[in-house]
Amino acid sequence: MDKVMFRALDLEAIDNTLYEPKYEELTARQCFDIKSDIHPGAETYAYNVLTRSGVAKIMGNAADDLPLVDADIRREFARIYTIATGFTYTVQELRAAQMTGTTVDATKAAVARRAVAEKENKLAWIGDPDYNILGAVNTPGIQIENVAQGASGKTEWVNKTSAEIIEDIRKLRKKVTVLPGHSNSSNLVLCVPAEQYEELNRRFSDFDARSILQVIQGYQWFSQIHRVPDLKGVGTAGTDSFLVMDASPEVVQLVVPMDLTRLDEEWKYPKWTVPVEERCGGIIVRYPMAIARGDGI
Hints:
The protein is α+β, with helices and mostly antiparallel strands. 25% of the residues lie in helices and 30% in strands. The longest helix is centred in the middle third of the chain and has 19 residues, at 107-125.
């Protein structure tokens, strides 16, 4: 029986869809540096976290109490997982494409790509408790605080004045910028949930036609400001949160040893199944203190 094979033209159309850049759709790849120099066959990725101790001091002529410094290197591990899905084409769909001289409809490939990208994005921000994967919002050691009440007696941004919202952001930013080596970071990022991001588009005041967002951008506090829907409900008691973080590669990276890849097609009447997979380790946070989470907005 004629299976109606895929043509090179069909597979090229699928691959072009699979490898479209994902940063245009979801936010993790916009915020985090991608670490891709790991072999896709690796099951774990190991990295060292260095903590130094000791100080120098002024010594007297005959003093023998030389102060010593030390460097404690702690080895951390991140597991690497396979994210996979697939899509099918029936023999009739292939026949119809060949009859008209066109390629197969690549919509299914786009849906598969989106599904993998959404999973990757979720792993980066909130992790996956079933596999003990932690995300940016719940990595141990990040700084967490509840935002202050506004004049209304409430903490939510929808109930706060423009100045109170900016003060919430300034205070959380300060938690990162006061850290040694982070005061002048060129990779300081602000991440805000969808509803609160829209609040930033509110007019600043009756006397200032700029939006709150434009005022913040004018301060040049952040290299990037992102709308991140994944931050909804991730705070204490299920409250919405925002993040301020130094997104430098030395602080945090998204581990993707193998980007989305189409595997060999599998035939079983009456359809071809096209598997796709990615190897992903979520994010690694080398310096958790450089991520600050504000809850209750």
